[in-house]
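Listing S7. Sequence submitted for prediction.
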Amino acid sequence: MSNHRIFDYMGSYDYEQLVFFQHKQTGLKAITCIHSTVLGPALGGTRFWNYNNEDEAIEDALRLARGMTYKNSMAGLLLGGGKSVIWGDSEALRKDPVKTEAFWRAFGRFIEGLGGRYITAADVGIVQQDLVYVKRETNCVVGLPGHSGSPSPYTALGVFKAIKACCYHVYGSDCLKDKLVAVQGAGTVAYVLCKHLHEAGAKIVISDIDQAKADKAVEDFGAVKIDPAKIYSAQCDIYAPCALGATVNDDTIPQLKCKIICGAANNVLKNAPADAKALKEKGIIYAPDYAANAGGVINVYYELAECGYNEEDSLRDIALIYERVLTILRRADETGEFTYQIADKMAEERIAAMRNVFGIRNIK
């Protein structure tokens, strides 16, 4: 992506900042994108991924940061949206403990240099010990052990609430007993989601490129493992994408045999206008990802509270995801608009309203 194209793209979607970090001694190559700080400091996790090239990493940072603005707004948080991506192999890095500490502390210093405009947390490829090292250099990090902890279980809980809301909308009941859910991915979030589904009486089909992770879900929850390429064509009631984004696209939509798409992955639709239209024509409802998967960010938000982290407050707000998703689905039916359009409008309206409020100056 050329510099000219980056500025054009940032201008089109009102991005504030795109920052590149590198630390030759540790091999750190990172990008932090701040989309908006209208509602508060930009919060979004750090993703550690072995991108194919720089353009792919830049695009991921940009798309994920904007998604966090909408997610945080939709969840009613006093936070803007941002994201960091690190280009590299996280597993290879962890084989060298000394280098690992230096790597993450260098990253922490760079985050501290943003002056509080951006707060990071864990995402794909990150473990909590990584954040412990970051914390040694900056307070702009959440999701730490002894505080709110890993956001993954709370993300899974929020998605579970969203799936129940979708079932109520489609079937007239949110009971999941004997509903067949095809879960794509068997990582930490997906595993906890499977636990909730299993306890609710749902049947689970699961796939993951890591066979060991899929096998654990089979052993613990009686899931049926299938080849990752066949997850899209699995006969099911609900398709729950819990891996990387853009899995709903021109190639996969014709294969889908579900009634509902609701999962933990970000940016599920590869081309939102075209994909949403194709899904609607097939009679498949889509719960916008950032409305469904906000449980994790809601939980880490309470780590920033002046009175300290309170799980009860977090769980109360995560429960609101159910009604929020129902509202999106109902408005889409009433207006004929796509669900992603309704969600975007709800998020944008709050940002615009608060921008006006913040324009009021108190004179002392």
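Caption to Listing S7: primary sequence and predicted structure tokens for the chain studied. Residues 3-65+79-135 form a domain with the Rossmann fold fold (CATH 3.40.50.10860). DSSP finds 13 helices and twelve strands in the chain.
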